[in-house]
Automatic annotation (TrEMBL):
GO terms for biological process: proteolysis. It is a single-pass type I membrane protein. This is Metalloendopeptidase. GO terms for cellular component: membrane. The chain crosses the membrane at residues 592-614. Residues 235-398 form the MAM domain. It comes from Cyclopterus lumpus (Lumpsucker). Keywords: Disulfide bond, EGF-like domain, Glycoprotein, Hydrolase, Membrane, Metal-binding, Metalloprotease, Protease, Signal, Transmembrane, Transmembrane helix, Zinc, Zymogen. Residues 34-228 form the Peptidase M12A domain.
Length: 643
């Protein structure tokens, strides 16, 4: 398949208003008069949205997942439109594009077209809608990148303009090569030569990432919208600080200790892998020194998650006895019934390495998370170690695929040979599997124990495949996501069978070395999940290990058309609004004047009103034309490939 790592900009400049690249200003710095994106271009922090029928099912699921990223990492939330004056209506246009900022047009459309159904791309388009331009449009960009004008398609050169910095502000954030809003090195280029060359060569392969928000992207959103908290983030702890994030020890003799290494393992923490001197701590309960039956409690501070589903993620290193147990409890603030609720008991498992655990909690009020280590009776030379704990108000990924020694695997796996994950079961009962082939990632339905009772072809199950960025704080993780939805109408290329039919019917037999077998259906995914240089960026690999997170979810409820809310009223509203905002303000455009005329001669009033209407319509048209100029068009990143 052909992979796109470029994106297009049709035009980013409003002809009526030479808009600055970063069109927002600190209110204390400058009047917003010169800026297309002053306060009036902001959305409320909870943005009403509408998903139009034209959207692909996979795109709908991806959009909702992108909203979850906003909820976790910013104070921006999204709510289904229920008649609010202005809202974002998402549809499938010819590409990925958006206007910049809240245009106050009532229904403001944003397009997620073919191949735009990627998490980073949706985040990018919504950043435009929130009021952000491309990173390399910043006034100071010439200090950081060279624009190679000779290598740019002649009719696209306008996309590389800069603007007077009296008109723009980057919200005090330094130039960010890693922004999800930055062009790639080959955007609008001719041939294969780069059109943008970072002045620091290291960033050549960094620019153009579409994995997700960079730290600076988040700083800018949070500054522009004056965010103080996000709606779903609850807590994160890497145990680097002396106060251990406000955690407390329970009563009893056995205690958890803050350590940087343990002779029985682990030799280092997980966050830093021992690479930073004087840093790199974790909490350890030594079962080597505890008496049999000894218990040690480590309790979080009081936390205030949103009621409902929460995901507790942490890394656990077990070097203790086979019968040592780690219990994960929740202590809710309930005076009537103040007992602990057990959510998970972990014993044995993979020993001697840092392992990721995801535990779904269900807390309805203020609560503490409690880690209880229990000493067994078997011989122990180590114990339990905890690091990089995160709690958020969201569902956990369903499955984890831990790939060890991935560098060696990538180096030694011949191109073309695939590495398959174990088979997993979705909540609905579908069996599936993912493979890796030199960073190409594909999803397959496989035969499983429930197949006789399942619907075939498999309808509207969406898989989320994420390569985890093993950053300590979940808010700073830029996981690489890929999502695929099973369309039950999709046919195999020869047109004889349904693509997502029972793998026993459309798949082939896979025999394991022990003689057991199963069936694997056709796969769908992407041939370049991630480039090698991007794989080495961030913390996708830590200690030479990588973690894939998978979920397979039923999204058939997204098939239904969304109810339209008071559309007629909406149309009238926007007509009046267009008049209110029309630039020339003559008597004819003044509602007070219109009222006066109505009081005099009714017939005349009708005439005047229709003139007003005509003017409104003209204004609306003009506005729409000028809006088209500020709509930012992006090219999709990947082309879907099937194998
Ligand atoms: Zn864009």
């Amino acid at each position: 398949g052909h992979d796109w790592d470029i994106f297009n900009i049709n035009d980013v400049c409003n002809l009526h208003d030479p808009s600055p690249p970063f069109c927002f200003l600190h209110s204390h710095q400058k009047s917003t008069r010169n800026s297309i994106l002053g306060d009036q271009y902001r959305w409320p922090t909870t943005i009403p949205y509408y998903l139009e029928d034209s959207l692909e099912m996979n795109a709908k699921g991806v959009i909702l997942k992108a909203f979850d990223q906003y909820r976790l990492k910013t104070c921006i939330d999204f709510t289904p439109w229920s008649g609010e004056e202005n809202y974002i209506s998402v549809y499938k246009g010819s590409g990925c594009f958006s206007s910049v900022g809240n245009q106050h047009v009532g229904k403001q459309r944003l397009s997620i077209g073919s191949n735009c159904d990627r998490l980073g791309t949706v985040e990018h388009e919504f950043l435009h809608a929130l009021g952000f331009w491309h990173e390399q449009s910043r006034a100071d960009r010439d200090d950081y990148v060279n624009i190679v004008w000779d290598h740019i398609q002649p009719d696209k050169k306008h996309n590389f303009k800069t603007y007077d910095d009296t008109l723009s502000s980057a919200l005090g954030v330094p130039y960010d090569y890693g922004s999800v809003m930055h062009y790639s090195k080959t955007s609008f280029n001719v041939g294969s030569e780069p059109s943008i060359v970072p002045r620091i060569p290291h960033f050549m392969d960094v620019i153009g990432q579409r994995m997700g928000f960079s730290a600076s992207d988040l700083t800018k959103v949070n500054r522009l919208y004056r965010c103080t908290k996000s709606s779903t983030f609850v807590d994160s702890c890497d145990f680097e600080l002396e106060n251990i994030c406000g955690m407390i020890q329970g009563p009893g003799e056995a205690k958890w200790e803050k350590r940087s290494s343990v002779s029985g393992g682990p030799p280092t923490d997980f966050s830093n892998m021992g690479q930073c001197e004087g840093k790199g701590f974790f909490m350890h309960f030594s079962t080597a020194s505890a008496a049999p039956g000894g218990r040690a409690l480590l309790e979080s501070r009081w936390l205030y998650p949103k009621p409902g589903a929460q995901c507790l993620q942490f890394f656990l290193h077990n070097s203790g006895a086979a019968d040592d147990v780690l219990n994960v409890w929740v202590r809710e603030d309930d005076l009537v019934n103040p007992k602990l609720k057990l959510f998970k008991s972990i014993s044995g498992g993979v020993m001697g390495s840092w392992e990721l655990h995801n535990i779904n909690l269900n807390v309805t009020r203020k609560a503490r998370v409690v880690f209880e280590g229990v000493r067994g009776t078997g011989p122990s030379t180590g114990g339990f170690s905890l690091d990089d704990i995160n709690l958020s108000s969201s569902k956990c990924p369903q499955h984890i695929w831990h790939i060890r020694n991935i560098t060696r695997l990538l180096a030694t796996t011949p191109n073309g040979e695939k590495v398959y994950s174990p088979r997993f079961l979705s909540p609905a009962g579908y069996s599936f599997q993912v493979n890796e082939r030199y960073l190409a990632t594909y999803f397959y339905l496989t035969s499983g124990p429930n197949d006789h009772g399942l619907k075939w072809p498999c309808p509207w199950q969406q898989v989320t495949m994420a390569l985890m960025d093993q950053q300590s704080d979940i808010r700073q993780q830029i996981n690489m996501h890929r999502m695929v939805t099973t369309d039950p109408h999709k046919m195999l290329t020869d047109g004889t069978e349904y693509y997502w039919d029972d793998p026993r019917k459309v798949g082939y037999k896979v025999t394991a070395s022990d003689g057991s077998f199963y069936y694997r259906g056709p796969g769908t995914g992407t041939s370049s999940f991630l480039t090698h240089s991007r794989l080495k960026s961030r913390n996708f690999i830590k200690g030479d290990d990588a973690f894939f997170l998978f979920s397979l979810e039923d999204i058939s409820h997204l098939l239904e058309s969304w109810p339209l809310v008071r559309t007629a009223v909406q149309a009238e509203d926007s007509l009046v609004k267009a008049a209110d905002q029309g630039a020339p303000r003559g008597a004819a455009g003044n509602p007070a004047a219109v009222t006066a005329v109505v009081g005099c001669v009714a017939a005349m009033a009708v005439l005047v009103v229709s003139m007003v209407m005509a003017r409104n319509a003209w204004e609306k048209r003009r506005r729409r034309e000028s809006d088209e100029v500020v709509i930012i068009q992006d090219m999709p990143w990947f082309i879907e490939v099937s194998v």
